[in-house]
């Protein structure tokens, strides 16, 4: 029972952190190919965000943590993510690997190949790290390639090709390819115009891959659906229903255009725009008093410390790292026993693997939608940088993500995760026992 209580408390802390990443990770990749304009929903310019005049000052706040020089960063823990230098080294090793030396594959996953659990549990701070290895999922010649690369010996330890294992996650390049092929198709253009939508107003996305029927079984295809972004940044509220374009990503051509929604009107744009600049700031609803700002002060600074990717807070200790696929991974969560003073293991590894949403609608435009966001898009790859005072409170500390692009080269997703303390002493959490009335005297 006591272990369950510890685990419950830790997941409350864990879920608060994940909420930050999840809220900031909802479909940002779909707008990578739109200009950062007035109606670009994931544009991070100041006009689309609630900005504070103190943001620039806050960025210099000592409590935000010392900036990390990723060019010289070295791992400190067996589970630390690959550094920028390590990803570059993997890229070099793969380029010299005979199957890829003439034709470099597209990289869909490049991350730490974690040591065995027993090895990690035996490791102590100050000891030498286990051999650093990378796990790579690449796509080449219509096949998925799964490789393990040893960074110390600079060689490929294993290379497996399994044509029956499915396909890797969709890359931004896959999305861009499918959308470009769709928008250049003349039949598609005629349909859009016939629906009363200007071609300049459409926004298209590739939906998560699913089972598309026996005629498309075994083919690497993506389905594209579009929206009207006229008058709103929230174009998901204005779908062009019944129009689905199936694109073969290998052949780079349209397989099918389904157009069954001519009788379904496009919703109006009124009251759908959530941008702060679009809100009626000077008009308060009747009988409603504006709410004053709320701030939690920590005059002595935060109570947690971060050493690399190891977080220590109160009697807790855990390892945290941004991950391209899962978003955030928390490992080796431990709590210090108040009686013995020893750290007790609560959870070895935890992360939100998939969000599975089956719509259960057999129609052409919906039957294939089984969103598995983390696996299909990469929850970390699609994350946006967190903005101080907008996404995270004062005294939050930030952690960057180092990921690999499709060409194998590393890039930095700055401020991908933030760590902060939140007071959880709300009255709803308070508990007391009723008096023991009626107990007979002895």
How would you describe this protein?
The chain has 442 residues and is α+β, with helices and mostly antiparallel strands. Helix content is 17%, strand content 26%. It contains 8 helices and 17 strands. It has helices spanning 2-23, 55-59, 84-96, 98-101, 117-122, 172-183, 186-194, 373-377; strands at 106-112, 133-140, 143-150, 155-161, 202-206, 221-228, 243-248, 253-259, 304-307, 310-313, 316-323, 327-336, 343-350, 356-358, 370-372, 397-404, 410-419. The strands form 5 sheets. Strands 9-10-11-12-13 form a 5-stranded antiparallel beta sheet, with helices on one face. Strand 16 (397-404) and strand 17 form a beta hairpin. The two termini are 32 Å apart. Mean pLDDT is 80; it is low at 14-64.
Which segments are poorly predicted (pLDDT under 50) over 5 or more consecutive residues? Answer: 14-64
Cα(first) to Cα(last) distance is 32 Å
Biggest sheet features: 5 strands, antiparallel
Overall number of strands: 17
Number of helices, counting only DSSP H or I runs of 4 residues or more? 8
Bulk shape: globular
Question: What amount of the residues lies in strands?
Answer: 25-35%
The SS-based structural class is alpha+beta
* Strand order, sheet with most strands: 9-10-11-12-13
Element pattern in H and E: HHHHEHEEEHHEEEEEEEEEEEHEE
- Any idea what the radius of gyration is? 25 Å
- Classify the helix fraction into a percent range: 10-25%
Mean pLDDT across every amino acid position: 80
């Amino acid at each position: 029972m006591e272990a369950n209580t510890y685990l419950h408390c830790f997941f409350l802390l864990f879920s608060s952190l994940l909420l930050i990443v999840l809220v900031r990770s909802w479909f940002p990749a779909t707008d990578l190919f739109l200009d950062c304009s007035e109606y670009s929903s994931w544009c991070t310019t100041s006009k689309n965000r609630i900005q504070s005049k103190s943001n620039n000052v806050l960025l210099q706040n000592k409590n935000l943590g010392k900036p990390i020089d990723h060019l010289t960063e070295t791992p400190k823990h067996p589970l630390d993510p690959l550094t920028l230098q390590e990803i570059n080294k993997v890229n070099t090793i793969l380029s010299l690997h005979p199957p890829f030396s003439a034709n470099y594959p597209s990289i869909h996953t490049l991350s730490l190949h974690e040591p065995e659990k027993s090895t990690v549990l035996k490791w102590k701070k100050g000891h030498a790290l286990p051999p650093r290895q990378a796990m790579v999922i690449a796509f080449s010649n219509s096949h998925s390639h799964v490789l393990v690369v040893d960074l110390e010996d600079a060689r490929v330890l294993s290379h497996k090709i399994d044509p029956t294992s499915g396909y890797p996650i969709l890359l931004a390049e896959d999305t861009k390819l499918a959308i470009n092929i769709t928008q250049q198709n003349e039949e598609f253009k005629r349909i859009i115009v016939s629906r009363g939508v200007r071609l300049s107003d459409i926004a298209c996305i590739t939906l998560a891959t699913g089972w598309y029927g026996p005629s498309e079984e075994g083919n690497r295809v993506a389905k594209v659906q579009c929206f009207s972004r006229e008058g709103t940044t929230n174009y998901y509220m204005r779908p062009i229903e019944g129009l689905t374009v199936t694109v073969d990503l290998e052949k780079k051509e349209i397989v099918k255009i389904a157009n069954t929604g001519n009788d379904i009107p496009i919703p109006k744009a009124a009251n759908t725009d959530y941008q702060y600049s679009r809100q009626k700031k000077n008009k308060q609803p009747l009988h409603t008093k504006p709410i004053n700002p709320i701030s939690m002060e920590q005059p002595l600074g935060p109570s947690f410390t971060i050493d690399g990717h190891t977080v220590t807070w109160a009697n807790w200790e855990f390892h945290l790292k941004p991950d391209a696929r899962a978003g955030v991974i928390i490992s080796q969560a431990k709590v210090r026993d108040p009686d013995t003073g020893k750290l007790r293991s609560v959870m070895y590894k935890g992360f939100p693997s998939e969000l599975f949403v089956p719509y259960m609608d057999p129609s052409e435009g919906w039957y294939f939608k089984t969103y598995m966001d983390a696996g299909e898009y990469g929850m970390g790859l699609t994350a946006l940088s967190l903005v101080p005072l907008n996404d995270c409170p004062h005294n939050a500390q930030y952690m960057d993500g180092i990921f690999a692009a499709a060409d194998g080269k590393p890039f930095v997703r700055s401020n991908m995760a933030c760590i902060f303390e939140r007071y959880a002493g709300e009255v709803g959490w308070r508990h007391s026992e009723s008096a023991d009335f009626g107990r007979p005297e002895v």
